[in-house]
Amino acid sequence: MISHFIANATAIYQAQIQNGFVWFDNILHVATGIAFTLLLLWILNKKSLQFSTISTVILIIIFVFCLAVIWELIEFGILRLFTSYAYSLNLYSSSVREASFDIVSNVIGGIIILPFAIKRYLK
Fold it and tell me: Taking 70 as the threshold, does the pLDDT of residue 122 lie above it?
């Protein structure tokens, strides 16, 4: 989240929007997917829940996907309810295509951390 505000303050988003591709936002979403995965693994560890490898992989992907969709719906809601606020902070997806890339970037982040999850949390 802090990176998002730094990107706004330094006009990184504006420069990318003018170039037609917002790559920095995708990097932030990959990092968020990693954070979502680590959150789920922490919860599983705290609750001492054990699943098979394939079940854990599927659970991680579904968890990250669902949180990403929820986040994009929240962004859409903020855009509709607080339009000027959303535009002032670049807190919105400019299209369904961009929102889809955000969701995919989150899932990629979850997939990137899977080898760590399998090695560390699965017996």
Answer: no
